[in-house]
Design goal:
Number of domains: 1
Shape: globular
Largest sheet: 6 strands, mixed
Helix content: 25-40%
Distance between the termini: 36 Å
CATH topology: Rossmann fold
Strand order of the largest sheet: 6-9-10-3-11-12
CATH class: Alpha Beta
Radius of gyration: 18 Å
Number of strands: 12
Length: about 260
């Protein structure tokens, strides 16, 4: 593990989630320790993004059973902003544009909201410029409207910029590698590794192995049909890349019939 602590930072216990009245996530349980990076892999439509959004408290996803614990505190019924203040962060698969709100003003408001008070401007600006440099983002982006007219790669870098500025305890990264070319993937991955050092727990949602060349997970969970169906070490991602998911699906179907 990348961190020294073995303490459980984040726990999901028999969590079930419905979308539009349909059960999508079914009694999912796992723990995330401080400093641990866990990859959640699975084919499209398996419910990975639904799980990530429900963990963050998105109002469009209904938790129908189970609990979510952050540092032992039950946050299942907390609103999204309350979870963020407790130290939970979600990088979206499809970041939305916010015309009329500049990147700098958005981040200043977000950092202040998470900290629960005003942020010294000099400190904020220094941190912002340093993270712009680390993520190879031109400083002119500070004055641009959030994600408005940004390329896919620029949007993903801005998500990791938010991660670096907000300094959460747990980072949920929903297909951050989606739509990135090789150069952008390297820069984004380096940003994640830099922002998520120490005791930060990471749940990295992906269905490709390639980002795991740069962000080495401590373990891999395979998600299918709204459930965790298989668990392995970091080398398991390479096997999935080589063999795909069909063989696991056949195993699951055989076990369900037995």
């Amino acid at each position: 593990m990348s961190g020294e602590s073995e303490r459980i930072l984040f726990s999901v216990k028999e969590l079930s989630v419905a979308v539009g009245g349909k059960d999508v996530v079914k009694e999912v349980s796992f723990d995330l320790r401080a400093g641990e990076k866990t990859a959640l892999m699975g084919p499209n439509g398996s419910g990975k993004s639904t799980l990530a959004n429900a963990l963050m408290g998105h109002p469009g996803y209904s938790i129908t059973g189970g609990r979510i614990l952050l540092e032992g505190e039950d946050v299942t019924d907390l609103a999204t902003d309350q979870r963020a203040r407790k130290g939970l962060f979600l990088a979206f698969q499809y970041p939305v544009a916010v015309p009329g709100v500049s990147v700098a003003n958005f981040l200043l408001s977000a950092v202040g909201a998470v900290r629960g008070g005003e942020v010294p401007i000099r400190e904020f600006r220094k941190d912002l410029m340093e993270n712009f440099k680390n993520l190879d983002i031109d400083a002119s982006f500070a004055g641009r409207y959030l994600n408005d007219g940004f390329s896919g790669g620029e949007k993903k870098r801005l998500e990791i910029l938010q991660l670096a500025m907000l300094k959460p305890k747990v980072a949920l990264l929903d297909e951050t590698d989606s739509g990135l070319d090789i150069d952008a993937l390297k820069i984004v991955s380096e940003g994640i590794n830099r922002a998520c050092g120490g005791d930060v727990g990471v749940l990295l949602v992906t269905h490709y192995q390639r980002i795991l060349n740069y962000i080495r997970p401590d373990r891999v969970l395979v998600f299918m049909g709204g459930r965790i169906v298989k668990t392995g070490g970091p080398e398991f991602a390479l096997e999935l890349e080589e063999r795909g998911y069909d063989w696991i699906e056949k195993e699951v179907m055989a076990a369900d019939r037995a």
